[in-house]
Amino acid sequence: MAKQSKNEKMENIVSLAKRRGFIYPGSDVYGGLSGTWDYGPLGVTLKRNIMNLWWKMFVEDREDMFGVDAAILMNQKVWQASGHVDTFVDPLCEDTLNHRRFRTDHILKDAGVDAEGMTMAQMDEAIETNGIKSPDGNPLSKSRTFNMMFETHVGATHDERSVSYLRPETAQGIFTNYKNVVDSFYPDLPFGLAQQGKAFRNEISPRDFIFRSREFEQMEIEYFVDPGEWEASFDALLKDIYAYLEALGLPLENIHELEVPAEDRAHYSKRTIDIEYDFPIGKEELLGLAYRTDFDLGNIQRVGGRGMEYTIKGTNTKFIPHVIEPSFGVERALMAVLSAAYTEDEVNGEKRVVMKFPEHLAPVKYAVSPLLKNKPELVEKAREVYSILKKKHGAVMWDDNGNIGKRYRRQDEIGTPYCVVIDFDTLEDDTVTIRYRDTTEQTRCSISELR
Hints:
Elements lengths: L5 H14 L3 E3 L11 E3 L1 H20 L4 E3 L8 H7 L1 H4 L1 E6 L6 E3 H7 L9 H10 L14 E4 L2 E4 L9 E4 L4 H5 L2 H8 L5 E10 L14 E11 L4 H18 L7 E5 L11 E9 L2 E12 L1 H10 L5 E2 L6 E2 L2 E8 H12 E6 L2 E6 L10 E5 L5 H18 L2 E3 L5 H11 L3 E5 L1 H6 L1 E6 L5 E5 H4 L1
Parallel strand pairs: 3-9, 19-20, 19-21
Antiparallel strand pairs: 1-2, 4-5, 4-6, 7-8, 9-10, 10-16, 11-12, 12-13, 13-16, 14-15, 17-18, 21-22, 22-23
Helix pairs in contact: 2-11, 3-10
């Protein structure tokens, strides 16, 4: 088969995601809302499987992790102290004729200019030097900053005191609960607080499917350490990250480490590694691992007036712990899983599209079918087998639509590892046919073995 271009592969994934009930454009029946996506029956299960796997590996399987779930709306002082109010900005430029707005670095990237590390003035200079126009072919304005936080008001009044924000990250909710967990559980250092939840960013130009959207979910850990021992924890968490990416089924050759230079790191970071992945849209950031020092807890102590020091048990030694932060975007992990799983091959001379999800991530584990849906005895027996598997595995689908070949193709497209077919031999010997997604091979086994 001819090899697909990356753009073609991305288009095929987006099409399949909508057609098969993984991901739909948000508010589609009313013309949509840019940067929002809805998850269908298969997508919500796949997404939950990815998040549950993360929770199991980073929280449930460890003794040094505690889960929290902080409120989305927080006191405005949280975002003032963290620097988000002043510094959580992107460079914005505008088409001078139709006034459409764009992220300046995206305009440069689309024109083949690497804007990494550029100041806003340097970006404007690069646009002028290279004669870059807007996507509509018009001149662009000089850049200005744009704060990406969604602002709202809490309560019946609208004044400065009622201002709040839809959180742009889940991390600050962890930091504000650090002292609560210490006082409730008094864990030994090092220990981590983990959270999964929604975050919101008013992206200037959301794009690339679910890669960059205005509403998304994060999976973040703030790992509190002795300042003198941060490097060992950093290296251990990096190793755990790779174990998780392997469990997602991502090929190692598509994963790249970027040691972020000092001039490109966030102001609070002393070391940052970006894990990049070869998406169909190109090599882009999948997740980050940052050493945040005591920036956040120090801010809380300074601005909030609450002591954030940790006291070593049995001693008078007190200090503000430093923090290692692994930060994962759920949608980016999901997009990587989709792109890694999407496969085109040939079966009996015909093109086949198959999503080769790892079995533990597949939204449907088994599809159960009667060979013929107009034979009551086959349907009754198939329903019996379906009930057995449904009770044990949950993620089981009943499929009697169309001929058996069409059912196989449909299940291949949604990534079902096993198709179980009940035929007339089943009525005689209680055996069924199992068809394997990746190889298309078929074997027979007894219903008791399925149990």
